[in-house]
Design goal:
InterPro entries: Beta_hexosaminidase_sua/sub, GH, Glyco_hydro_20_cat, Hex-like_dom2, HEX_bac_N. Its EC number is 3.2.1.52. Keywords: Glycosidase, Hydrolase, Signal. It comes from Deinococcus psychrotolerans. The structure is a single chain. By secondary structure, the chain is of the alpha/beta class. The chain folds into three domains: 19-28 and 492-678; 37-167, Chitobiase, domain 2 (2-Layer Sandwich); 173-485, TIM Barrel (Alpha-Beta Barrel), CATH 3.20.20.80. Helix content is 25%, strand content 28%. Helix 2 runs parallel beside helix 4, helix 12 runs parallel beside helix 13 and helix 13 crosses helix 15 (476-485). The longest helix has 18 residues, at 69-86. The two termini are 44 Å apart.
Length: 680
């Protein structure tokens, strides 16, 4: 029988068989799951050399030279790294030591000079690891702390990698934006140590909805906001990791926070507004009733050096000016007077002011408005598109202000803006995050791509000349974010690779438009390696795709479910999977795994699109519930990927009889490419 005849019979069989089932052939492997440290240091050091060899962990201790708080922070973080990654304690002393100090110690300074790694750059450090021990010599105490963050990344199960590093930050101010809401503790307690390891030195803290005393008394405090005690706790926590807290309290525009519960509506700029957005700058009670009390409480709570007042997109929604007295004054004077009033109030408490650039430096006012503002303002210029340069930074500097660049999420926006900030002498960069005022948990599950951008920002703000992480490895920023936010031990787990070949419904290569998604050889998965393959931290046996039924015509003739007869115990199951097509409905339930046990019980693992599974053509990780897997390209250059859902078995002592993949036959159809049993 010819190939065409076989395909006709296969199609007919699938049409007649709504479900597939087959016993699993298993291949034992020692590294079914092997979590190992990355060999890429992030942020990339200015100068780094590596040689073969490691400093053994046996009899290795920690020695601090000096009493600066940053040295105790370094010890804390290194001990935590040892405990998390190796499940061991790092001793306070040993036959060989990790010695941490600064060039203020003449002996350490002499050692750094002898090693050819001495630096006097602020926040810089020298680091070397060899058979004689490990040394971190900071140009100052903060530099020693950053050196410890790099040393953490040299840790392996066998020891510390030999290295010679001379390093310092390219940008002075390196800011990451975080949020305060009712979920703050669970999120910020993970983010803050992570941001320190990425060598940020400040956090911009969205604080609009903190439950200020004045807001509680006036009935306009939001139930979803963080308490003042939580705000103070986060500020203290940030400082203990070397991150200066900068509250962001949006003023002039974006001020829905002051109108909660229908309060303060007499202070609205535009009385006709259905969703009040800006306040009336000519009503004295705007300041005496709301703004000054809030700013005073913010200063007492955060004890900041600066407060960011926003002042962006002022005329984007409401009419401004809207009231007749405001029209008589004009927008420019209203903006300037408000900025000066708030700036002067903060200055009376020895606190500096930051504003966004867009309203003050708009084309219509740039020739006159900036000249009227206090020159000790810091102006942060946000532009969320990648560009070869950002001349606005020089415009801000030439007007007499301190300039910060501000990036967000578009590919390479962070990297190109950081390079421009260095070239144009800006004071630093802010990596913003816009996940909603009450959406803190989404940084892990929902808008995780914005967490990934923290990694890109840390790399580029420290070293703007560094190669973009996407060019080093397309999944590097994603895997690093997942690893730093939820670190796991470095360990190797044995398991078994499941042979899915008897259940395969689509070939990965599509040479004749009868495989993969029926689009031909230029847009298929032929680039995915087959056989016994390492994908990220996992190993799989890959032979083809168990693609199930979907709403698309090219998937309408496929089975609705496929069952693997496993008959094995497992600590966890790793599913390498994807969908053939996308769905316009985020979090849509497109299928499920049903895990049936020998005792008759069953557990269902839902497959929500964007959370547990996503299309092979969709690269943006909205959730970290699914781990990054394989990244590649089709023959026509389309970037594609597969993810790994690591399912932890709540009943590891029970035999798993079967694993069944079931499709809901939606636009996005579940497709299993690999299955691995981890542990037993």
């Amino acid at each position: 029988m010819g190939k065409g005849g076989k395909k006709v019979l296969l199609t007919a069989a699938l049409l007649l068989t709504p479900a597939l089932a087959a016993p699993a052939a298993l291949t034992p492997v020692l590294d079914a799951l092997a979590a190992q440290p990355s060999k890429v240091l992030i942020p990339a050091p200015q100068k780094a050399e590596f040689s073969a060899g490691v400093l053994p962990l046996t009899n290795l201790g920690l020695k601090l030279v000096g009493s600066a708080p940053e040295l105790s922070w370094a010890a804390r973080d290194l001990k935590a790294e040892w405990q998390t990654r190796l499940e061991q304690k790092l001793a306070d002393s040993g036959k060989l030591n990790i010695t941490i100090g600064t060039r203020a110690d003449t002996e350490l300074a002499a050692k750094a000079k002898a090693a050819g790694l001495y630096t006097e750059q602020p926040e810089g450090y020298a680091l070397w690891v060899d058979a004689g021990g490990a040394y971190i010599v900071g140009a100052d105490a903060r530099g020693a702390y950053y050196g410890a963050q790099t040393l953490r990344q040299l840790l392996t199960p066998a020891g510390l990698r030999f290295a010679r590093i001379q390093d310092f930050p390219g940008l002075k101010q390196r800011v990451a934006m975080i949020y305060l809401d009712s979920y703050s503790k669970g999120v910020n307690d993970r983010l803050i140590p992570m941001l320190a390891e990425l060598k940020y030195n400040a956090v911009l803290i969205m604080s609009n909805y903190v439950q200020w005393d004045v807001a509680r008394a006036g009935g306009w405090a939001s139930a979803g906001g963080a308490t003042k005690a939580e705000a103070a706790r986060v500020a203290d926590l940030a400082r203990s990791y070397g991150l200066e807290p900068i509250p962001l309290i949006e003023t002039l525009g974006h001020v829905a926070w002051m109108f909660q519960g229908g309060k303060n509506l007499d202070l609205v700029q535009d009385p006709q507004s259905q969703n009040p957005y800006a306040y009336d700058t000519l009503n004295p009670e705007t300041y005496t009733r709301v703004l000054f009390p809030v700013l005073k409480e913010a200063v007492e709570t955060f004890k900041p050096k600066q407060i960011h007042l926003g002042h962006d997109e002022v005329r984007n929604r409401d009419r401004f000016p809207a009231r007749e007295n405001g029209k008589a004054v004009g927008f420019e004077k209203l903006f300037v007077d408000d900025t000066i009033k708030l700036h002067d109030y903060l200055k009376s408490m020895n606190v500096g002011t930051i504003i966004w650039h867009d309203a003050a430096f708009a084309d219509s006012v740039v020739s006159s408005l900036p000249a009227q503002l206090p020159k000790d303002l810091t102006v942060a210029s946000w532009n969320y598109n990648p560009a070869p340069d950002y001349p606005i930074l020089s415009t801000i500097k030439d007007a007499g202000f301190t300039a910060l660049g501000t990036s967000w999420g578009d590919p390479l926006n962070t990297e190109t803006y950081a390079a421009a900030a260095l070239k144009r002498g800006a004071n630093g960069m802010i990596q913003t995050r816009w996940t909603g005022y009450f959406g803190n948990p989404s940084i892990w599950d929902g808008q995780a791509d914005q967490g990934v951008n923290y990694v890109r920002g840390g790399n580029s703000f420290w070293n703007p000349a560094a190669k973009p992480l996407a060019e080093v490895d397309p999944t590097l920023a994603e895997t690093t974010y997942r690893d730093l936010y939820a670190p796991t031990p470095y360990a190797q787990h044995a398991g078994q690779l499941v042979d899915l070949s008897k259940l395969v419904t689509r070939t990965l290569a599509d040479n004749d438009e009868n495989g993969w998604i029926h689009k031909g050889p230029d847009i298929d998965l032929s680039g995915l390696p087959t056989g016994n393959v390492k994908i990220g931290a996992y190993r799989f046996a890959i032979s083809g795709a168990v693609m199930l039924k979907g709403a698309r015509g090219a998937a309408s003739d496929l089975p609705t479910q496929a069952t693997i007869e496993l008959n094995q115990k497992a600590a966890r199951l790793a599913f390498l999977h994807t969908t053939g097509w996308t769905t316009p409905v985020n979090r849509e339930l497109i299928g499920r795994y049903e895990i049936a046990y020998a005792d008759g019980s069953k557990i269902v693992q839902p497959l929500e699109y964007g959370r547990h599974i996503r299309a092979w053509t969709e690269l943006t990780p909205s959730s970290m519930v699914q781990a990054p897997g394989w990244r590649g390209q089709t023959k026509d250059g389309l970037a594609v990927n597969l993810g790994v859902l690591d399912w932890v078995n709540p009943k590891p002592d029970q035999v798993i009889k079967t694993v069944t993949l079931i499709s809901e036959s939606k636009q996005a159809n579940p497709t299993l490419v690999g299955l691995t049993v981890v542990g037993k």
